[in-house]
Amino acid sequence: MPPARAGVPPVVTAPLRPAALPPAGLPGLDPSWSRLVQAPDSAGAPRTWHLLDTAPDASPGGGDVAGTLVCVHGNPTWSYLWRHLAAAASTAPVPWRVVAVDQLEMGYSERTGVHRTLTQRIGDLSNLLDVLELSGPVVAAGQDWGGIVVTGWAAAELERAGSGAGRHRASSPGSHLAGLVVANTAASYPADAPAPGALRLATRSGVLPLVTRTTEAFLRTTLALPKPALPADVRAAYRAPYRSAPDRAGIEDFVADVPVGHDHPSRPALDAVSEGVERLRAAGVPALVLWGPRDPVFGEGFLRDWRRRLPHADVHRLAGASHLTPEDPRFAPAVVRWLGERAAVEQGAPAGRAAQGAPGREHAPPRLWAALEERSGDDGPAVVEVAADGSSRPIRWSLLARRTRELAAGLDAMGVRPGQRVSLLVPPGADLTAALYAVLRVGAVAVVADAGLGVRGLTRAVTGSGVDWVIGVPKALAAARALRWPGRRIAAGPVGGAVLRATGAAATLLEVAERGQNRLAAGLGLPPEPGPDAEGAILFTSGSTGPAKGVVYTHAQLSRLAAAMGSVIRTGPGSPLVSAFAPFALFGPALGATCVVPAMDVTKPATLTAAALADAVAAGGATSAFLAPAAIVNVLATAEALDERQREALAGVRVLLSAGAPVPTPLLQRVRELMPLADPRTPYGATEVLPATDVSLSDVLEAGAGEGICVGRPVPGVVVGIAPLDADGHAGEDVTGEPGVTGEVVVGGEHVKDHYDQLWATHAASVRVRPSAELARALGAGRWHRTGDVGHLDDAGRVWVEGRLAHVVVTADEVVTPVGVEQRAESVDGVARAALVGVGPREARQLVVVAEAEEAVTGPVRRTTVAPPSLAEAVRVATGRGLAAVLLVPALPTDVRHNSKIDRVRVAAWAERVLAGEKAGRL
Fold first, then answer.
1. Which of 109, 312, 468, 804 is deepest in the core (most CB within 10 A)?
2. Which domains does the chain have, with CATH numbers?
3. Tens digit of pLDDT for each residue in 367-399?
4. What is the DSSP string of 448-499?
């Protein structure tokens, strides 16, 4: 690291290069935004700045704009970075003025020849904004090292105004600091840490001038970071102000000012910024953190630091985005939406999670572990693990309760603290049950993401959650080490010293329990119980319609979720449950029910055989069973292998449930042959709200044929409404309870999720509704959730699901929901499963059915083929649609967790290529 040229008083001379306006024609940049402004720099020398200003004559409060966004770029970019935000904010329904500055020595601002330190840059910005005389609400926004500069300015303004809640002066007497938006930047940086990521090479002695000033290497490398790649003309626009080596001197100086080490001249300034962040937190200044997870410079550690320092901040991870976050097309809409939410709060209206009306503490139900404590003297089985040979291992309630307390005490002794995140990568069974309840008891947050997400999805879930601890079996811990997952590690199962060393585990669960046992024996109790509104768990969605999302539940919501599931499962003390659906194997003990874990790979539901199910039912004397749809299919396919004892065991099941994906009625009817006492039930819901509705096979048969799948009536405490679709297939915010209206299914209830983890924009969109007065009264203090499913209500109050909102096909003439058409196609002999997709541009879009064939009728289909004319015509007649084509494939692609949900987006893209005559490859 070359020494920084800090502390030298600037010599005011003629600029090395005067400030200028950018050339016309830069893509996405409105030339009317550019202006030159004179303002003194931090040393008082007159300087000329270039900045973008979308509304220099606007006046907040006068109806022109709601406020001003002050945006500061980092290195080696310029104000061009903010062009998308400038366009979006200035044209929003409630517009905001955007002032995006080019820092001195950068962009089209003056080249002074002065090496500018962090202290100077903060002072420069402050003087410029004083000259601009901003008024009304001011929101500071920054990326890269510009984020540090603007955060330092915001904290200084707060200090100048005097700290405290409410409005804070921002440069001008008529302005106030209304918020902070940061993207891929730092709130602090340890003095003993090396330069972040990709900067390490650039900061080496002798390398810095070569890669930053002499050549464009540093500039071009930065511009290559976005995914997908920036267009060539956009890269050229970023390079435009840095054509010569003197133009790039500021890039070199910016890198040299990265405060690595204790003795760096800018170290005190960065520490002061970090302290300023604490003042922003204490004052309750609203904050939004938008993050590109694929950033090689500002990695996950920086995001975790922001979350720790600003726990009240709204955080949104832009999956797939990299370093230049404002270039992501999702960035500007998220900021504008956040400004609208915060503007509503400023005016006294509720916004975001506040609008949900969360249930109060006085009505908080008992925590999940209460049932364990109540049955701590019970020697009956709490969990029964069944092996592949049919043998079983029962774990008594008394042992489970004792082991949970010991693990809780041991985790506390090891340093697991309230609010820390603990990833649980243990198969369902006694170890997972005890570990989960122990984690909850000490107030940590359980992160539950099963291996069904695949290595990539699981890595994204664990890393993105910012876990502090990982409890897993050796295979999972080995993956955690190889994939560099964060967190200290604890090994589950029988593990030797060699495995501990190989996986980097600090201890085994047994050792944690022994430590806790000693702690309890010494009279040291457990820490205080977490409050009902504290975060309890993060449960991950299946990822079947995009990257899996972390769904956050508080302790009160977890308890309500368990109670709602218990009422549908009809289980509790004396009603053992076989759970072949991993997430819900954990709720049995909370309901006081014995939970039986069958011999199967729980990450692959289709591995459950009829024999394994029967053995589990017999081992636990179970009266209820919870199976994924794919498990039901394989149970029926392997039923012929059952012996008389196993058939007799299944005949005693009284409640069979399946959730996660639709289950065809013919399959449920076949289930009755194995379980004649059961009226199969298929509760409907999602990770965000389960159950929402409940329906039995008898109910489905009574409802008869309809458009879509009948999922029954709302369970007690749940309200269901519909957000109607418009002509473009979009669902608005108005929600109605009127029957016969097709639209997005919206669910409300007390056990609805609290929010999505680090996906503020996604959560905000999922709760943005305007329910009818009747629905609002019915919901009371509950929360709303937009499911992403489309459907309708019938005259009897039943909910019918017609597909996913993302799978609706919009043609030039109509909006078509897929499920009803697919059901009618599947009624044709020769069609096993079908997917309806649209092909072509909207004005000429055609409907296409892609189907799995029934071999008994069509013979084996080993490659893509066009359906025979007679079969295609039969499908057209059955569906009542003028289908452009009917294609047959060996198998339709499904999601990884349920093995049931058809990936229609993938099918549509594939069908488009096939019908265009391209080489489409395998589906």
1. 109
2. 31-346 (3.40.50.1820), 370-597 (3.40.50.12780), 684-751+760-806 (2.30.38.10), 808-915 (3.30.300.30)
3. 888 888 898 999 999 999 999 998 999 999 999
4. E--GGGHHHHHHHHHHHHT-SEEEE-HHHHHHHHHTT--SEEEE-SS--HHH
